[in-house]
Structure prediction request, 172 residues.
Amino acid sequence: MPLQPEPLFTAQTIHKRIQELAHEIRAAYSDAPPLCLITLKGALHFGSDLTRAMAFSSETDFICARSYADTDSTGEVRLLYTPTAVLRARQVLLIEDILDTGRTASALIAWLEAQGAASCRIAALLDKPSRREVDITPDFTGFTIDDHFVVGYGMDYNERYRELPDIRILEP
Ligand code: 5GP
Ligand code: MG
Prediction:
C-alpha cells in the first residue's frame, strides 16, 4: 500500500498546532496539573512533544490498549499495559493519537473511572468523527480529518512508518 506523496500534515504544521494545544490544556488545568497518560504506541511522539510543550511539573505514565489489526477496527479492546501511577482521585489527561470509532478511548475512560480516577479528559492529535461508533468527543483536538487511514508521527501500518516526521495518507 503506497503513501500519498504529499503529507496531510507536515512536521512544521504538527509542531505549531501542538504549541497551541499545550496552551489550551494548560489553561484548562490552571488549578492543578493532570496525570498525563500517553497511549502506546501511536501517541508516542505526540505525547512526548505535547507533554514537553505543556511543561507541567506533573507525572507522565503510559497505557497500551489494542483494538486494531491491519486497517480495520476489530471492535475489541484489550489492555496490554496499565500505568504504575496511582489513579485513584487523579485528574487524568489521556493522550491519544486518533479517535476513530471511539471504542478504544471509551474503553480506556471506563477503565480509568473504574480505577477511581476523579476526572478523565482526552487530548487527541487527530479526530475522525465520521467513523464514530460510540458517543465520545475529545476534549482537546489537534486536527479533525476525513475518513483516511494515516501513518507517520508515531502512527503505523502493521508496525511500519512510525518514524516518519509528518502525517501521510496510506492509499487503499
Ligand atoms: P478506535 O478505537 O477509536 O476505532 O481506534 C483507536 C486506535 O486505532 C487509534 O488510537 C489508533 O491507534 C488506531 N487507528 C485508528 N485510525 C487510524 C489510522 O488512520 N491510522 C493508524 N495508524 N491508526 C489508526
Ligand atoms: Mg492508539
